[in-house]
Structures
1.
Amino acid sequence: MQVIKTDLVIIGAGPGGLSAALYAKRAGLDFEIVDKNMAGGQIINTDSIENYPGFKENISGYELARNLVEHCRKFDISVLDYFAIDSIGKTGKTEDGKSFGFKCEGDERLIRTNAIIIATGASPDRLNVEGEDEFIGRGISFCGTCDGILYRDKEVAVVGGGDTAIEEAIFLAKFAKKVYVVHRRNELRAAQILKDRAFNNKKIEFLWCCMIEKFLGKDKLERILLRNKNEDKTYEMEIDGVFEYIGWKPNSGLVKDLVKLDKRGSIITNFKMESSMPGIFAIGDVRNTPLRQVVTAVADGAIAAVYTDRYLYSLEHEESKG
Ligand code: NAP
């Protein structure tokens, strides 16, 4: 087992984690940034980002992610990617007498560190209805950017009424013959600019107050069973693909026994991005953020790195006094 000793581990190399890495580097910290997947985070799968300040022409999520990674490389920061941390624990002194607050273990590596920034983001929620498990990857998808092209001239449904659902419905309408937006209420949660675009798109049709109750088909998805809540009626509808965008769950499992979480499972932080456990910080979609955006994740990353630096400084000075 390889043992790495460092001041700080940043877990997750999305926009928040990469921004934290840039600021940690500028503060002169010794740190590792790791990601269980390719560096870049959720935005890799976003077709176009049009609200990241300074990019007045649309930039694809993939391109923005690449820019962030290359910006880090310019400052000699390399992401330890495809490395999954399986557990985080508190530790005391090591055999050489130096104390480390935490140990992170996974894939034949042990990282001893005094501070951690959790930047693990969030994962898509699922409908959890009959047939869903069976047809994921065979008609059910969570990523229009990845799978949209497979539905050229076909009929698809998007579930949800938030920004993601409406953005993806507009994207899918570029390929699909028809896009049904299945929403459980009669009003969208999405931003006005997205609503206007969707309402003006002739390929998009809204199925208000409807829920999918069952996914049906043989080898691949063929039909959905819909319930119209207003009429209290169910009916089957033929469909080639369904894209679910009904929200996100914070990926906070690694620290669920170490820090306080809110009832959704988000890590509770203060304005310094500190969790309830000294030395553990959280940023972006995994924390109880009031706004889930690239711009807020990036800002969180900068704040967390600055306060981690202060935390490590005070730890070192307390240790030397003690
Ligand atoms: P969201 O805002 O939480 O919306 C989830 C949608 O799914 C809601 O319309 C909700 O219905 C519906 N829903 C939830 N559970 C459901 C269920 N079990 N069955 C059927 N429908 C269900 O999630 P999001 O759209 O992924 O957005 C997440 C965050 O990212 C938001 O803060 C959003 O503003 C941000 N975001 C921003 C952009 C952008 O600025 N361009 C793009 C994407 C995301 P109700 O409305 O009835 O609750």
2.
Amino acid sequence: MNYQKFYQASIQEPETFWAEQARLIDWKVPYTQVLDHSKPPFAKWFVGGETNLCYNAVDRWLETQADKAALIAISTETNSEKTYSFAELHTEVQRMAAIMLSLGVKQGDRVLIYMPMIAEAAFAMLACARIGAVHSVVFGGFASKSLATRIDDAKPVLVVSADAGMRGGKAVPYKPLLDEAIALAEYQPQHVLLVNRGLDAMKLQQGRDVDYASARAQHMDAQVPVTWLESNAMSYVLYTSGTTGKPKGVQRDVGGYAVALASSMKNIFCGNPGETYFATSDIGWVVGHSYIVYGPLIAGMATIMYEGTPIRPDAGIWWSIVEKYKVTRMFSAPTAIRVLKKHPPELMRKYDLSSLKSLFLAGEPLDETTSSWIAEELGVPIIDNYWQTETGWPILSVARGVEAKATRLGSPGVAMYGYNVHIINEATGEECGPNEKGVVAIKGPLPPGCMQTVYGDDQRFVQTYWSNFAHEQLYSTFDWGIRDADGYYFILGRTDDVINVAGHRLGTREIEESISSHPEISEVAVVGVEDKLKGQVAVAFAILKHPALAETPEGSKALEAAVMAVVDKQLGAVARPARVHFVGMLPKTRSGKLLRRSIQAICEGRDAGDLTTIEDPSSLQQIKAALSH
Ligand code: PRX
């Protein structure tokens, strides 16, 4: 089919178009209205329809492929590998659901999942979906303060966690961080369900903490019927960073999300029932939600959950998995590929990769060198795709399930169906011409699968995303971009204070707040600086209360380590700045606004930009001097 026609149909007649896509999932009760856009920018899809994500991911495959693989949990950290068929997954999810019900979880209640990449994490997500509870998965790399903020916002009645994860052969304890987070939080969850992997000794708190293995033993024959949910009921909340220090809870629906995933699995990811999908992300990120857990299962595919790094025991590990499980579609991030590129290619050439049909990469800009290298090594199409936690599925890519359109180096592709993408001039609010830089914006309604609102804060949703342009209510992605004359887009970085470290989205404000809590710090600026391997790294410039402390190299080193330790402890090592420099003054405008973009430019060896409003130009010299130390 011609993609242009397909795309135009999605924009011009969205209701007819999405009604067709909605047939890809099972509905208990048919919807009465495809789209309710009576209160823009809020969009309700498939109003009145009743369905269930867990039913579509698990139960509906029981008839045709009960014994086929559904979930393949591989850990190169604990050297374990276990395949669950759809029937076994169905059983485990019902056991987990029964435990949740026994712990008092009701429809609409939030359940926070703070877990390593183990099968039980997927059971917990699917169990929530089954009983209509709302999951809030928090990335295992986040530490106590990040976790506490999310506990207070989501107010979960139950937390599901584990003793520890493992990374690079070392146990990474979860339980102590969780205990600390609950102590920090104002809101107190009633129960904590803990998977004991035997990696780190745990102290269970009487009355609150429940051991998963014992609870499971009580529910071996559990049969928990699916709770049918109205399409616009809430399925989950996933927090993401923005301009403020407070992460936003991206809230998603049930029916629209299920349809968007089923549709994107068919049209973009080209996955078929019975095949194996391998996404190397983490359940704590949106890619893990959409394309480790729900998407592949909804498409009837086996999905791989992988705990480990791409290079342990050696850089051939992922490719050995592709060979062993005949993976047809793989999804990763550019940073991972850049890491692999540093290792001898023989390690991947050892394996039979003939099952693999394409590799999808997302989460950060894909540079041409990395893209060309991996394309040559694998001999399959490399499909870049651009999207956000907020949208849940690709905004830009090429939909090869519709038409085998060519990719273009450096571009994530063209606008995906359902997304009415525009490039807008930030100052005038006018549409940009071809190859003219502007903000990537989307005209509402957003297609099914995108965020419904900011959890608990409709106003923040409208204000943050839909109030950035002069003439029209448009959704802002907060990314700069250009569109070429053929409709291919190029993404040129964020317009806000969000940085992207190895495909992980982090807010510089959150890192600044954390650093400021160190007793010796009086002020700090954090910027994202270009990095060959990770895309960007965070670099901090801090003013000390007692500058003498950093006068000697030893003093400065010790303080830098202490500041990093604060970030590790509060936010997690994922947010740790690569460097902390101490300066006497930070570049600011006369009205006191930090000139982060100028600091970033200096760090990257570029011109500091427009400095007409700077309060004291010598502050820039201080940044330069700090960098030369
Ligand atoms: O800046 C864009 C960048 O990552 C942001 C979204 O991150 P997150 O919410 O974690 O969702 C990731 C979903 C894949 C975007 O605003 N980004 C994401 N994909 C790409 C990208 N930048 C360039 N190219 C991409 N393919």
